[in-house]
Target: FMN reductase
Amino acid sequence: MTTIAVVSAGLSDPSSTRLLADRLGRAAAEALLADGTPAEVAHVELRPVAHEIIDAMLTGFAAPALATAVATVVEADAVVFVTPVFTAGVSGLAKSFLDVVDKDALADMPVLLGATGGTARHSLAIDHALRPVFAYLRAAVVPTGVFAATDDWGTEGDAAALEGRIRRAGADLAWAVRASRRVPQQADALPATPDFASMLGGLGH
Model:
């Protein structure tokens, strides 16, 4: 079974970022299934682990919820990564999560990028602010990124155009999965939060 980790860095609940991420993950899974490859989607919502991400940046240790999120991403066969855009850049939450993932953990990982924003003027953020980060991580990012502005969720025509972009991007990720040379990984991006009792070695008794 192929696993697609769908990462959403949306800050609100409900979130258009989560909605786009879900649709991209579903499109990729459907494209894989159409070619005879069963796929499942594993959702990773960053908002609930926001505090753990900051703590990990400060301490170097991952709390259990964050460790689980990182493991889901690192051990997947492909990743859909979607972030809101603020002031022409990706959200700090999205970048901070990538900062706590080991720099080699996503090498050759097939990745589909998406972003949401209030206006189409932010659409280039995928290429100038997000794609370079994944290039540094040596991920195999597919050419088609999907940006959804507020208007894309409105009229029937805009919604249909967005659906077309989602379908194309899903097909791109499915192709990248089939062509992937990635070796299965085990998550070791950050050590788990230490058990201080064991670190003291019984000195407290």
User: Anything to note?
Assistant: The chain is about 45% helix and 20% strand. The chain has one domain: 2-182.
